[in-house]
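Protocol step 4 of 6: record predicted structures for both targets in the notebook before any analysis. Target 1:
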Amino acid sequence: MALTDFPLPASAQPVQSGICSAVSDAPVAVEERLDDVLSEILESTHGAAPGAVLSVRTGDWHYIAAAGYADPEVGRPMDCASPFEIGSNTKMMTAVVLLQ
């Protein structure tokens, strides 16, 4: 799947960037596209997810960014080091490992 497989509507607006101590060293074009993907994720949740962190690592580069708010009531921006509850995500990973 290529980055171009994630079409964005013309209405997608950038969201406020959060705080990241890690430095992204992804190519500029990839970084811009992933910023758009992160913005679209937040826009598509219609406020259900006020903030998000996206991290993509390849053998050649690492992209990490935070967007939105960790606490929208007080205006605290999302931080790349913010802990997240993973919920039931491990069930899918465990199933894949078992199927392998």
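Target 2:
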Amino acid sequence: FEFEIKCDVNEINEVYIPFMLIQPFVENAIWHGLIPKEGNRMISIRFTKEDEKKILCVVDDNGVGREEAKKRKDPLKKKSLAIDFIKQRLELLSQIKGIKCGFTITDKKDTNQNNIGTKVEILIPILN
């Protein structure tokens, strides 16, 4: 697959975000979205500074989408808890920092309502 990582944060060496918040979303995009797809596979990861307290990270893929991925899941496999843990961490950080943060997952569709990938938007507090 192809990938791109873009960072629109000017002071990249001075901005710290909580670790291990993005990796599970990227991993899910690869394992569940891109690997089962045939043809062109692409994942894009973008970081944008929302304001002085938040970074927006967007993980966007052109994989098979969550609906198709659910059909392919092995029923004997255990459910991954990574996304639930990230949700809890972001809720806790929201309370501690007084900053609204969290994530949304969007199933992308074409004009015929066919699955064309998944987009995850993660609003992350800046820790410094």
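Step 5 preliminary note on target 2. The chain has a mean pLDDT of 89. Helices lie at 23-34, 65-72, 82-97.
Proceed to step 6 after PI sign-off.
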